[in-house]
């Protein structure tokens, strides 16, 4: 299956926020964040299909105090509709998985997702995207 190489790099976000309890509250905060920074209406369709797969693996990096080193954990997400991910749903789920580890990091800003082209041995049927983090 073909997947886009770089996705959602036109959306701004900061992982310092606490966990969101609902997708709707997250989408409202995401829209406001983008409008506040860009000074223009947020026109991205957060209900648009972004990954045509029922599962996706996301990998990111953060400093681990116990390891005293940077670690790159990954996690598997399931699409709510068991078919594909929507933009808002994907970023909402990623935020709630990573915010605890990224809220104190310099690299806590979302800059999109980058598709891994190699083999994904742990989850061979799911695409793996790296979370592009900025400071």
Judging from the principal axes of the Cα atoms, what is the shape?
globular
Unreliable runs:
none
What share of the residues lie within helices? Answer: 10-25%
The total domain count is 1
Distance between the terminal alpha carbons, to the nearest Å?
33 Å
Question: How much strand?
Answer: 25-35%
Order of helices and strands: EEHEEEEEEHEE
Largest sheet, in brief, is: 6 strands, mixed
CA radius of gyration is 15 Å
Mean pLDDT: 96
Alpha plus pi helix count? 2
Give the helix/strand class. alpha+beta
Total beta strands: 10
Quaternary organization: single chain
Q: Can you summarize this structure?
A:
With 135 residues, this protein is of the alpha+beta class.
């Amino acid at each position: 299956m073909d997947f886009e190489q770089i996705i959602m790099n036109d959306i701004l976000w900061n992982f310092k926020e606490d966990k969101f309890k609902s997708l709707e509250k997250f989408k409202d905060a995401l829209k406001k964040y983008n409008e506040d920074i860009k000074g223009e209406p947020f026109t991205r369709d957060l209900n648009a299909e972004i990954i045509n797969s029922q599962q996706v693996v996301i990998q990111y990096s953060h400093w681990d105090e116990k390891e005293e080193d940077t670690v790159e954990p990954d996690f598997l997400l399931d699409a709510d509709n068991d078919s594909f991910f929507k933009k808002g749903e994907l970023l909402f789920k990623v935020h709630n998985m990573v915010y605890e580890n990224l809220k104190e990091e310099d690299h806590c800003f979302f800059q999109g997702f980058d598709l891994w082209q190699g083999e994904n041995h742990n989850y061979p049927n799911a695409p793996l995207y790296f979370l592009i983090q900025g400071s």
